[in-house]
Amino acid sequence: MAIDFSSEIAALKQTYASIRDVSDIDQLRSEVAELTEAAAAPDLWDNPDEAQQVTSKLSHRQGHLEKLEKFDSRIEDVELLVSMAEDEDDADTLAEAEDEIGKLRRELDSLEIATLLSGEYDERAAVITVRSGAGGDDATDFAQTLTRMYIRWAESKDYSVQELDTSYAEGAGVKSATIQINAPYAYGTLSVEAGTHRLVRISPFDSNARRHTSFAAVEVIPLIEATDHIEIDENDLRIDVYRSSGPGGQSVNTTDSAVRITHVPTGTVVSMQNEKSQIQNRAAAMRVLQSRLLQLKHEEEEREKKNLAGDIKASWGDQMRSYVTHPYQMVKDLRTGHEESNPPAVFDGDIDAFLEAGIRWRKEQQKAAEAEAELA
Questions:
Q1: Domain 234-305 falls in which CATH fold?
Q2: Rounded to whole angstroms, how far apart are CA atoms 128 and 166?
Q3: Which among 36, 82, 240, 331 would be 20 to 30 A from 206, CA to CA?
C-alpha cells in the first residue's frame, strides 16, 4: 500500500508543533548555558559524583535542545525530497523519504515521551530493587533475569550502572538485587516498571518438565540529592555488619564489610555489600535508605491528597506484566495492553516500547484522577 506522504508530513508537523508548545526552549537554552559554565569549572572533578551529574545533565539537555531546534529543518528537508522524487517519478528516492519519515516519527515519539516526564523526581537517577516472590527456584531465577534486563537496557544506552547489593539464593538466582542507574530522567522513565511481574514457563528446575508460574516484585525509587532534606535520627537506626556472600552462600570477603541498616520506625531495611569497605557500604546504604524514606514521604503525601479528593481509582494493581514462554511466546503489560512476541529480546533489555506505553498510561491515569478530583 502506497504511503500518503502529504498526510504523513502533516502529522509530523502537527506533533512537532504540540511538542514545541509544551517545551520551554528558552528555559532549556538557559539550563544548557548554566551547565556548560559549571562543566568548565577548574575544580569540577574535585567531587567526581557531582561532576558526573553535571556532565550527564549537560549531555542530556544539549541533545534534547539540538533535536528540538533541528526538527523544523529536517521535516522541511524530507518534504523537499518527496516533492523532487514525485516530480521525477524516482521510486528509490521515495523509498529513502519513507525511511526518513519513519525515523522522524520514532524520534518525535521519544521527544513526546520526554515532555510527559514532569514529576517532582522524574529527572533523578533510579534505584531499582528486584525481589523474588512465590515460585521457589523459578522465582529467584526470574528475579535475577529481571535485574539483568534492566542492566542491559541501561548498557544499551551507555548509562552508568552500579550494582549496590545482591542477596543470592541458596539454589539458583537471587533473593533480591539492588542496582542504581545513573542517567537524567532514569527514575521518571523506569518508575513505570514498579509492581509485580509474573513468569510462566517450563521450569528448568522441574525434572518432569512441567509448566510453572513464578513472581518477582520490582521497586523503583529516585536517588536522593544533597538538596533533599530527610532528617534521620541515629537513635532510630539499627546497624548490623556481616561478611559479604556470593552465590550459594559462599563468603567473598574475610572481613565484616557488608552493612545492613534498619530504620526501626518504618521497618525499612537496606543492605549493602558491593563496596570494598564497611565505611563505603554504610554510606551507600544510608543514601538508599534516605531515598526510600523520601519515597515513603512522597507516597504518604499522595495518599493524603487522594483522601481529600475522595476515592480516585488510579492504582497499579498486583500484576502489571506477564512473561510467557510456554505454551506460546508473549510479554504483555496488563495496564497498557502493550505486548511483544519475543520474550528473549525483552529479557535482553529491549523494553523501550513497554516504558513508553507505561509513561503514556500513567499520564492518562493522572489526568483522569485530576478530572475526578475536580468533580468531587
A1: Double Stranded RNA Binding Domain (3.30.160)
A2: 12
A3: 331
